[in-house]
Amino acid sequence: TVSYNNVAVFASDPAYSSAAEADSSTSYLGNRAVLDGEAGGSGRVVAVERLAPKISTKKLVIVMVGMPARGKSHIASHIERYLGWIGFPTRIFNVGSYRRKLTAGDQSADFFDPENPEGLKIRRELAMACLYDMIEWLKNEHGEVGIYDATNSTRSRRDLVRTTLENEGIRVLFTESICTDESVIENNILQTKLFSPDYRDKDPATAVNDFRQRIHMYEKAYEPLGGEESKICSFVKIVDAGESFIVNKIQGFLQSKIVAYLLNTHITRRPIYLTRCGETDWSRDQKLGGDDFLNLRGRNYAEKLASFVAEEFPNENHPLIWTSQLRRTRQTVEFIPTISMCWRALNHLDPGDCEGLNLLEMQKKMPGEFRKLHLDPFRYRYPGGESYMDVINRVEPVILEIERQKVPILIVAHDSTLR
Fold first, then answer.
1. Within a 10 A sphere around the Cβ of 1, how many other Cβ atoms?
2. Total-model pTM
3. Which residue has the higher pLDDT, 143 or 110?
């Protein structure tokens, strides 16, 4: 017979890629328990046979679409950080960077005129060079998700990009940023493009005027996603910095995760404060886990934190305050005159059987476990407890809620969760 523990071992086999498991396009046969009974024996598990996948894992490329000054690069950087955080190696490939690197980098707006054949030819060559480098990274350098950051403003260009990627067995998700709010566009022009490498040594007024001319050149040929593309393409449209969304033919786990993340993002600036809770006798002795009360130093810190918040927010418009469910975090905010929200997801990493030990005591009493912790502190799971990977999984809803909020937030938690 195969025991529950045997099954757990098969399920946690590190060779079974989380990315492959997550992508519904990949069909794995998995592991097969080889039983002694197959040779007329006792039926005991004597080996685990790794079976080959029927289809190779499909990588994903997010193809950005949109006019200049619509926040494409901002969105791309958000997606890159999020996917990297949940364990998918992700990299942005920006066509504009290739243009600046491989040409003089000081092209006027006329260079972007769709009726300029020489400029059109150079821009196409640069776009394809960037695309092929991304494919190389995905196929040969263990990349999982590439973000192709360019305007991709015509259907013919998007068809070229899509067919090139699909011929390499790579899935495509188009992400278009549409903005009709002139104030947002104007702010993007002034705040972003004045600091663009394209205009590093240019007079600000000249830079803004040239960039507006560049936008006008793109407007001549711009074709938004839709029409026949709706029948064959996966895409998400972000309208007016998140005021509304259009989602089409989303496939698989990873694309769904990306869309869920984008639904919670916005471009409103606001501060986010992170602090550990005040000191306890337990933390002073560097013991793992616990739910102790603040000691004198911890209460002094709680008072100073309240004074800091009062200075930062003098008009009594206090930030949202989130804590874990443990006593020391709730005590740390008790001098701040506002309501706080307790999240179980913000509790410290569960040390399981090691609770109450410090690392020196763990090394003496459980040398084998301490050695595993030392070799891979990120993936090591305490006996009966958690690993940092487990903490990432349970903290993800908090990350999405942070992204959704448009007001200041103060988060009081623990070293392991704040990391």
1. 10
2. 0.75
3. 143
